[in-house]
UniProtKB/TrEMBL annotation:
Similarity field: Belongs to the ABC transporter superfamily. ABCD family. Peroxisomal fatty acyl CoA transporter (TC 3.A.1.203) subfamily.
GO molecular function: ABC-type transporter activity; ATP binding; ATP hydrolysis activity; long-chain fatty acid transmembrane transporter activity
Matching PROSITE patterns: ABC_TM1F, ABC_TRANSPORTER_1, ABC_TRANSPORTER_2
Keywords, alphabetical: ATP-binding, Hydrolase, Membrane, Nucleotide-binding, Peroxisome, Translocase, Transmembrane, Transmembrane helix, Transport
Protein name: ATP-binding cassette sub-family D member 2
Residue ranges of the TM segments: 6-24, 80-101, 121-141, 231-250
Entry GO CC: peroxisomal membrane
InterPro entries linked: AAA+_ATPase, ABC1_TM_dom, ABC1_TM_sf, ABC_transporter-like_ATP-bd, ABC_transporter-like_CS, ABC_transporter_sub-D, P-loop_NTPase
Subcellular location(s) of the protein: Peroxisome membrane
Coarse class of the protein's main subcellular location: membrane
Listed GO biological process terms: fatty acid beta-oxidation; long-chain fatty acid import into peroxisome; peroxisome organization; very long-chain fatty acid catabolic process
Domain ABC transmembrane type-1: 95-327
Source organism of this protein record: Adineta steineri
Length: 706
């Protein structure tokens, strides 16, 4: 087979492969569209103000990066500063070692051409000796890079945690703001990958720039020694032209990896959040056999992630092919030409250290060629890393955007600036919505700290979604009052607690209230923190902050008739998984023990005794009143009415009343209501029996039977 036929065959095969790949890609796209039409569109992921569509290497990215770098900027004398100096020093040392090793390889080739065994063995021994510190420095570069990434991650994580737990940001981010869908992933994976990517990119850029500078200087010195050779001007100009052409081509044809990586991280976070939700609600899902629904939901999220990952893989296929062609084969060919220019154009006397055995200086030229080739290859690798790092910089832009957005949202939520992003619903879906306020509007209400009283002046109760529960609420509660709060579900009872505690924003009006430390909430399902039994009683205090000794804690447990649990579990310092060990009633009583420990001015009790017997809850309420604790109680138990002085009642339609509680009158009305309900409950049975009698008598209708 002739050479032309071979070339034609290879070219045709390559063209056919490209054509088949493009046809297969179109087939996959068509199939994906058909599947999406058949199964319905995937879940709509709302985008925040920092949408991924605008993520790229630009001024905005640089500003975001500078803001984050200022957070973990290593100060002089710190461990991070020492690691940074060590890392840079090892990078510089590695560059000089690379040049020295290139010269050693040239000397080895020269000794082989000269067939000088002694010089060959001596050079090999030197090479192996230098290899020991060179290997250590290579390992030290990776070590300092990992340690530096860990140091940066630690400082950034601590800063993020300080912001996350400041001014109840952890609550506001998830309940009052919707820009961060997965703050857990932002605080863990995103910070870790950002610190690792940034540190790795620093190494990938610092060493190549050093290599290019030092290797260029070395090559120029070598060319200058050939005074009659050409190339001192031509080679640098041609090299710059080749590098610029390569960078321009890759820059124009590079996909937007920053946007792609950021979107992939977002979808990965949603998938992990879905798994977390299933774990948290596993019992309810198992009771209803809802595994098929959850499975379909998980598969939809996974398909979204798979499609995004597949898109990145496809983008990388063609980009890496172009990158490899330009920076491996094209550059290698150009490098051989650039090396040949000074060697072929040299017309001076031959340079040799052996005029008798090598009068033409072949071994010297071979040595110079080998050294030049190795140096130029190292320089080309350095420039390749610099240019190919654009892809990593684009990925860093995506990770930087996620971390910056997280910190920006934390700061805005801490300063009560929230943004809600509406979720899209199918057009054919009809939902009766309540009256809403405009989302994202600034809360203009005032919260003024008072000494003791709670005064609410024309304050609306508005949910984070914008639903107006109560248009205007005005009342005054003083410490001697004990308020019973009633009403149907969703009328604003628990919302009132969130409002006076400051968890929800106040859009208008004024709220006078004591310092938040004077409020203590006990929900229906008290939170059991990790730690000992002592930690459960004094929560949220720590051991260092506690002011009660063991006898006082035992007395508090006695108030709620829970003293037996100390002996059962092995003492106050016993560590257990209290959420699973204690029963519902025990957890509620342990939550009430916290109230006796902290002795707040106002206790916010939200169905906190639903699993406690009536006699025990009566003793608890009576003891709390003796200690001077004002009780604000949400309950459906008539047995607790006697322990309250006032009634705040919501009707579920935006109306409310606040009045003195007349327990006897209310109990009378309650008894009459129950009697009427009992009488009406028998009406269906009477009607059914009457129908049966009409049927036995052969009557057609109940009226005829009558």
């Amino acid at each position: 087979m002739s050479r032309r036929v071979k070339i034609l065959f290879v070219s045709s095969s390559f063209t056919l492969i490209i054509y088949l790949l493009r046809r297969y890609r179109r087939y996959l796209l068509r199939k994906t569209r058909q599947t999406s039409v058949t199964q319905g569109s995937l879940i709509n992921i709302p985008s925040s103000s920092s949408s991924s569509s605008g993520i790229s290497v630009n001024k905005r990215f640089l500003n975001q990066l500078l803001v984050i770098i200022r957070i973990f900027n290593p100060r002089f004398g710190s461990d991070a500063f020492f690691l940074l100096i060590t890392h840079v020093t090892t990078l510089i040392s590695r560059t000089f070692l690379s040049i020295y090793i290139a010269r050693l390889e040239g000397a080895i080739v020269k000794s082989l051409v000269q067939r000088n065994l002694r010089d060959f063995i001596r050079t090999i021994c030197i090479f192996l000796t230098v290899a020991v510190p060179s290997s250590f420095i290579n390992s030290l570069i990776r070590y300092t890079e990992s340690k530096l990434a860990l140091a940066f991650r630690t400082k950034l994580t601590r800063y993020a945690y300080d912001s996350y737990f400041r001014n109840q940001t952890y609550f506001r981010v998830s309940n009052l703001d919707s820009r961060l869908l997965t703050p857990d992933q932002n605080l863990t994976d995103d910070i870790e990958t950002f610190a690792s990517t940034l540190t790795h990119l620093f190494s990938q850029l610092t060493k190549p720039f050093l290599d290019v500078a030092i290797i260029t200087w070395t090559l120029v010195r070598m060319v200058q020694q050939k005074k009659t050779a050409r190339g001192l001007r031509e080679v640098p100009i041609l090299t710059i032209m080749v590098i610029f052409l390569t960078f321009w081509a890759l820059r124009k044809l590079s996909p937007r990896f920053g946007r792609l990586v950021s979107e992939e991280a977002k979808r990965r976070g949603l998938l992990r959040f879905a798994h977390t939700r299933i774990i948290a609600n596993a019992e309810e899902i198992a009771f209803f056999d809802g595994h098929e629904v959850e499975k379909n939901w998980i598969l939809k999220l996974y398909n979204q992630l798979r499609e995004q990952t597949n898109l990145i893989i496809k983008k990388k296929l063609w980009f890496i092919m172009l990158e490899q062609f330009l920076m491996k084969y094209f550059w290698h060919s150009c490098g051989m030409i650039f090396i040949a220019i000074p060697l072929l154009s040299y017309d001076g006397p031959p340079t040799t250290d052996d005029p008798i055995g090598d009068p033409l200086g072949i071994s010297t030229r071979t040595q110079e060629f080998t050294v030049s080739k190795n140096l130029l290859s190292s320089g080309a690798d350095a420039v390749e890393r610099i240019i190919s790092s654009y892809k990593e910089i684009a990925e860093l832009a995506g990770r930087t955007n996620r971390v910056y957005t997280m910190l920006h949202v934390f700061d805005e939520c801490a300063n009560e600036r929230y943004r809600r992003i509406s979720m899209t619903i199918d057009d054919h879906t009809s939902i009766d919505m309540k009256r809403k306020v405009i989302l994202n509007q600034q809360a203009e209400g005032q919260i003024i700290e008072s000494d003791e009283n709670i005064i609410v002046e024309n304050v609306p109760i508005i949910t984070p979604n914008g639903d107006i529960i109560v248009e205007s609420l005005s009342l005054k509660i003083i410490p001697t009052m004990h308020v019973l709060i009633t009403g149907p579900n969703g009328c604003g009872k628990s919302s009132f607690f969130r409002l006076i505690r400051g968890l929800w924003p106040i859009y208008s009006g004024r709220l006078y209230r004591p310092n938040p430390s004077n409020f203590f909430l006990i929900p229906q399902k008290p939170y059991m923190c990790p730690g000992t039994l002592r930690d459960q009683i004094i929560y949220p205090h720590t051991i260092d902050q506690t002011f009660a000794n063991d006898d006082q804690l035992m007395e508090m447990l006695h108030y709620v008739e829970l003293q037996y649990i100390v002996q059962r579990e092995g003492g106050l310092n016993a560590e257990r998984d209290w959420k699973d060990i204690l029963s519902g009633g025990e957890k509620q009583r342990l939550g009430l023990a916290r109230m006796f420990y902290h002795k707040p001015k106002y206790a916010l009790l939200d169905e906190c005794t639903s699993a406690v017997s009536i006699d025990v809850e009566g003793k608890i309420y009576e003891r709390a009143k003796q200690l001077g604790i004002s009780l604000l109680t949400i309950t459906h138990r008539p047995s607790l009415w006697a322990y309250h002085t006032h009634l705040l009642q919501f009707n579920g339609e935006g109306q409310w009343t606040f009045e003195v509680l007349n327990t006897e009158k209310r109990l009378t009305l309650k008894g009459e209501k129950e009697r009427l309900e009992a009488q009406l409950a028998g009406v269906p049975a009477i009607q059914q029996r009457l129908s049966e009698l009409c049927h036995l008598l052969g009557e057609d209708t109940i009226d005829n039977c009558k």
